[in-house]
Amino acid sequence: MSLDVLCISWGTTGNLSPVLTAARQLHRAGHRPRIMADPAMSAEVEAAGFPFVGWRRAPTGQKADPVDFSDLADWLRQAMFAPAGAYAADTLDEIRRLPTDAVLSIDLLVGSALAAEVAGIPHAVLSPHISIRPLPGMPPAASGLTPPRTDAIVSAMESGRPALNAARRAFGLPPVATAFAHFERAERVLLAISQTFDFDTAMLPANYRYIGPLLDEPVWSRGARTAWSGLGRPRILIAGSTGAQNQTGLLRRIVRAVGTVEAETIVTTGPNVEAGDLDAPDTIRVVATASHDALMTEADLVICQGGHGIVSRTLLHGVPLLVIPLARDQADNAARIALRGAGLRLPGAVSPDEIAAAIQRLLAEPSFRTAAGTLGAAVRADIEAGGLVREIGAMVAAHRDAASRDGGRLWA
Asked: What is the value of pTM for the model shown?
């Protein structure tokens, strides 16, 4: 059964990368994926060999992915709920433009979930991080907590439900009683993380599946030739975020701290920080981008903000982490790394002296590398299981069987 799958990304390249990995897995299995995303990402998608569709009504750039995360409810309103109708309209246009057997969309795209519901086609929510929807026994997303949890994200999400229901009414759908309804209504919620990495949940909802991280390197980073010198000193990779999160000050403090440590250091700033802003000494190499896979093969430590992609990639190479989270899911990932003993977590306002002390400890104590290697092996096993393709095929087959029994027909 070969399927036409509309794969939809949101926000920055941090979300595009797992969507492209999903598309590659689907393509290798004989399916026909196409990518819908910010128009600024067209070159990356086309270089990967997939048809590209850009947003027309929906927000793009920093309007889609606001930098200020200080007020979670307001951020969710701007990113998820206020533009839900625009995302839905663009998604529905694309579903009607070409044959579409299934929609796979990033979990923040509640409007794309709405469009799939209107069209009556199976929909999978892709979460390339811990579950946004609170699960039994789990701390909530964006809390950075370990169990037991609080439910701050529930009230933040619920504040956006009136806007969501307004969009639903505009498309002829009934209102929902919870802002998490698209997780409940989706045929699949695919958690693109390792179950071993996550906290133990008391009971996973029936439509949830762990499928392992989706970690193909971006096309734009593969040709960046940066390598270690081979001088025999410890090797530290400082990996800046691809998103705009006001991270320049943090990177500057990290660079100052690493400058006091006897090590070879490479900094990848990402697209939102200039090398000259970091005041790095000549002993530290600063580049916009590099192949993290190539560098991690020989790295002794990775320092990062804690996005799920960089954390999972580091674990796959068995390298310990120093995670200094600023926003989003970063504190959640940091909490899991610290709990598993695969690294250390520091607060965002940490001083250079405190950073330097943590670096020295991570380089000196072998238990961190041992724990990272154990966790990384479990992550790799989840990736090799190939759960995404299996689950997309199963949900479409089940949807067709149900439609046949009900005497209905699929959108085609």
From this structure: 0.81
